[in-house]
Each structure stands twice: as structure tokens, then as C-alpha cells.
Amino acid sequence: MxxxxxxxxxxxxxxxxxxxxYFALKAFNSGQAQRDIxxxxxxxxxxxxxxxxxxxxxxxxxxxxxxxxxxxxxxxxGDANTPCGTQDVSQTxxxxxxxxxxxxxxxxxxxxxxxxxxxxxxxxxxxxVFNWDTIGQFIVRDAAGTVLAGTTPHDQPLAVLIGPHGVIxxxxxxxxxxxxxxxxxxxxxxxxxxxxxxxxxxxxxxxxATTDSVRTGTNNDRGLWITPGxxxxxxxxxxxxxxxINAMLDRLETCLETNPPLPAYSALNxxxxxxxxxxxxxxxxxxxxxxxxxxxxxxxxxxxxQDNLLYTGPVSGxxxxxxxxxxxxxxxxxxxxxxxxxxxxxxxxIANYLEGANATLFPNAGAYTGASIYDAANPSADVARCISSxxxxxxxxxxxxxxxxxxxxxxxVTVNPDGSVSIEVAGGSSxxxxxxxxxxxxxxxxxxxxxxxxxxxxxxxxxxxxxxxFALQLVRSDFGSAPNTCGSQSRMGVLPVADVWGSLSHIIExxxxxxxxx
Length: 518
Prior knowledge:
alpha+beta
């Protein structure tokens, strides 16, 4: 009986041990579940703030396009540290909570959040072209090897947020000085299983916890990510997004209509040609160079959306929604089902931008169809513009309508109340001049100038040549503002060849009498 009582006692103790372990494990799991809920809520708050930052980026940077994300915080003060790395190279660090106007967000274990941003999405230095087809540079897996985000290039996240939770293995989180978050600035002291590429355009891998990895103590990181689709879903909600896209198309259409001859189609960049260094409009053989805007933010719009633009012309027999056209300008909207634009080769495939008959026709003549404007409610629909190339409108300048746009230089020029201009004999050797300094496009135009003039002093034949007269001088418009000097009296006030304004000009000289034949 004593032996039986001893055995019974051992069994009872074993049962108590199992029950105790069960309740301890249950309490641990319950606590862990609560910590995970806190982490999930914090990650969601940070994600929403980052998407908001991206969607409003242009509001804070009016000469830039929108959608960019901040650099990480690398010194634990809550501010984004810019610039971060080199172009198109991803960066990691703490979440820049102060830059995002947030408190220092922490996970369920009290650790500040970590943040990884793609080189293609960070705001400094920015990638060359950023739009809804930009590829994120992260693949997110769990500790069992299952891909959570990034199964296709267009699903690869632009950014990943991580709640690191407690210390695992040999991680060291020694304070790096007095700061809100404190601790080490080394990623591996907080994050397990991260492989960060240092190559421009390279893909990085981040690994998150599973139940088993938490139990075995190999990975306890929780995470949340941001895809390009999520960023641009928020951006498309802005009323000015569609307005900006349509304004870009309006400017391109006007440029092509008013700067003939029409460029010839080439396969380069779907007929648009190369995007050049920003500069003045020039008549060249490709659309992007000819219609390159001089001033931001139009430069940023055209640069970042050039891949979505298509042009063909001149083409005989082309129509857009039934209207005859000499050329066709198209905007391929957001990706439709089956379209992919993950690399240069795919961006060169017309069917990855246009749908239906448009994709089959381009770049030949035929019946093109499409909306006349981009509509954010139907983002993948083709936009088609008809270029009739009717030629530029006429420009007329007169004293009656444009007198306030003229400026005078030199001596002896008087603007009269009746709208006439008197040019008197100038003192010394310099003449007086009256300039209209606004550029007048002359491509394909006929120049006609009409003016009535009267000499107040005679300069008769046979007498001393007094040199009375005046000249109309047309100069190039790309030298900047109008000149503030005039030519000498011996040249009738005309700027000489030695002057940059006079070296390339057309002159119509009017004299009473000039024996020198100047």
C-alpha cells in the first residue's frame, strides 16, 4: 500500500505539472496574442500614414510628381535622414515617425517600428520614372518559406514595416545614446532573416514569423507592406490627379497642332522618342523633344508618364472616334487584366498599354477609339486624341492692342497718347529703339508687317545726307529678355553683328535718302 501511495503521488504530481504547464502556456499564448494585436494596430497606423505621405507628396513639393515615400530614420530621432543611399538602392532604418507627424509607434513588446523602403520609391534620391507601374524591390516570406507578398513583380512591395518584438539569439540592442527609441541602429539586432540588396534595382527579401518560429525562438518579427497599387489607389482618389493627366495630354495635343510639321513615327518609346534634358520647345523629329516643357511641374509629369504615352503620325486614313486625323496621340491607362509592364521589354509591347482594336492597329492608320479624357473611375481605359495639324494660329501685334508689352531703350523714343510712337534724333552716337520682347512663333507662317510712318524733317537729294530713317529688326527669341541697348546712328539704330541680338536677325531699313547705301 505504501508503494501504491507513492506511485499515486507521483502520478498526481505529474498531472499537476502538465496542468500547470498547460495554464502557463495558455497564459503565454494569451499574452502573445494581445501583443500581436497591439503590433498589428500599430503597423496599420504607420502604413496609413506612409500612404498619406505618398499621396500628398506633391503638395509639399509642388515641382515634383507625387507618390514618393520618405527615407528611413537612421539616427533614432524620428526624422527621415535624406538623402538615403544612391538612386534605386533600397534602404532600411527606423520608421521616421516625426516626419510622418506621428508619435513614436511601438509594437506589442514596446519596440519602435522598423521600416524598409524601395530605392524606386524613396524621395531622395528619386528614381528616374515613377508611376503606377513602378516595381517595388521587396519580397516578403514567412519563416516556413511561403511568399506573402511579391509573387509577381507588380505585387512586390514599395515598402515594408516591421514590429521586431523581443530579443532572439545573439541580438544586441544596446542604447546608442539618448533618444526616444534608443537602442542599436543595426537591422540584424532587431530583424531576423533579412537579405537587403545593395544593388541599384536589386530585390531584397524580408522574413516574418510563423507560430512555429515564435515557439522555437528563431523569428518573432511581424510585418505589413505597401504595394504600388495601394499607393496609387489613394492617389487616384485626388481630383487633381485626373486633371494633371488631362492637362499633360492637352499640352501635348496643342504642341503637335501648333508646331508642324508633324513628327514621323519611330518605334522608339512607342513613337514618342527620347525624353531630353529640359529645355525650350524645338521643331525636331520626335514628340518628347519637341514638346518638352520648359518649366516644372510639367517636366515632372511628362517625364514620369512618358511610358503611358503613344504617338503615330503622319498617317493617312486614321480616325479617332470617327473624326479624320493626321496623327493620333494615345494614353494607355492603368494595367488591365493580363497586362504587365515590369521591365523595358514589356514596356515596349503595345498590347500591354492599349486594348482591343487600338492595340491591333497601332501604329498604322485605322479607326482608333477611346475616351477623350482620362477618368479615374475607369483608369485602364485608353484615351485617344485626334491631331488634325491645322497649323498654328496667327499672331497679331499692334500698338492698339499691345502697346503696354513694348519697352524702349536708348534715347529719343516717345509713346504718344494716340498710340503712335515718335522716334527723335538721338543725342550722341546711339539711336533709340522700341522693342516687343514676347516671342512670336514663325514656323510655317507668313510674316506681314504694316505700319504708317511720317518723317518730320526732310533729307533731300543733292543736300547733305542727314541719315534720317528707322529700321524694323526681328531677332531670335531664345536669348532671354529683350536687349537694353540700341545700335548706333550710323546703322539706323540697328544692333550690329557684334551684338548677339544682331548677329542673327532680319532687318527692314527705311530711309528718306542715304547716299552711302548702308
